[in-house]
Design a protein that fits this description.
Blueprint: H1 3-21, H2 33-42, H3 46-59, H4 64-77, H5 82-96, H6 106-123, H7 129-141, H8 149-168, E1 180-182, H9 183-207, H10 211-241, E2 247-249, H11 252-258
Antiparallel strand pairs: 1-2
Length: 262
């Protein structure tokens, strides 16, 4: 099985595990504020759950269950539910089966990879500015207390949704009319993308259960790091050698990803 399909199967199985793991019950006499919050979340009464859990964390900041529940309530309130990602994973698995055959040219392989990445990116839910603020807060809540594979996967999904908003809004790549891009905004955009992806893959690595997926994700994280280091050196060289250069031509892969300047 290829990296893409193996990884997507892992996501699909892990999401189902997270869903089933959130539906446990406790004896009636053992009801806590977290149990009440979970009941409110099940009823889609997210606002009351958020208020209750924020109060819980004010007095019990080490309650990791409350942290996960609060992030879940914030996600649910903003339409980020696991079933949407199950469908996305199934769709991408289907698309992954149509990858180029071995022996295809490197350009055909690159074209397929770009189309696959664009399809995956388009499948990620869209946020508005308010939803972004709440999910950004959810990630802050989950900065500590994440320990189980399922909670790492959940945090990775939140990172993915926030990442899409950031690279299409506050850090959107501004492309000039002649299909060039200014160096400073490009450098900022690249730093955001590489840093976000490196952190996201790190969460997925911890969430992964089988060794082959872990090895694939470890290689991917190392590749992202190496690309980041190489590009940083290139930016440093451009700043030293061509101080008057303000913009460069948009890279081919970026043109194809955004379907522009072709």
């Amino acid at each position: 099985m290829t990296l893409n399909r193996r990884f997507l199967y892992f996501v699909l199985v892990a999401i189902v595990a997270v869903q089933s793991g959130c539906n446990g019950s406790k004896p009636a006499e053992d009801v806590t504020s977290n149990d009440r919050a979970l009941s409110l979340i099940d009823q889609k009464n997210y606002n009351d759950a958020i208020v209750l859990l924020n109060k819980r964390l004010e007095t019990n900041p080490q309650d990791n269950e409350a942290r996960l529940l609060l992030a879940s309530a914030l996600a649910g309130k903003n339409g980020i539910i696991m079933t949407r990602f199950i469908q996305l994973a199934k769709t991408l698995i289907g698309k992954g089966q149509s990858r180029p055959l071995e022996g295809s040219s490197k350009w055909q392989a690159l074209e397929w990879q770009i189309k696959f990445a664009r399809s995956a990116f388009e499948g990620i839910p869209e946020l508005n500015s308010h939803s972004y603020s709440e999910l950004h807060y959810a990630l802050q809540v989950l900065r500590d207390g994440v320990s189980s594979p399922g909670s790492y996967l959940f945090r990775a999904i939140l990172r993915l949704v926030v990442f899409k908003y950031e690279v299409t809004h506050p850090y959107k790549l501004r492309i000039n009319s002649d299909c060039t891009v200014s160096l400073k905004p490009l450098h900022l955009w690249f730093n955001v993308v590489s840093s976000s992806l490196h952190t996201l893959v790190g969460d997925l690595y911890v969430a992964a259960q089988d060794q082959r997926t872990k090895e694939d994700l470890e290689r991917l994280q190392l590749k992202i790091y190496n690309v980041h280091q190489d590009v940083q050196k290139k930016f440093a060289e451009l700043n030293e050698d061509t101080s008057e250069l303000e913009s460069i031509e948009l890279p081919h892969a970026v043109k194809r990803f955004y379907s522009i300047c072709e």
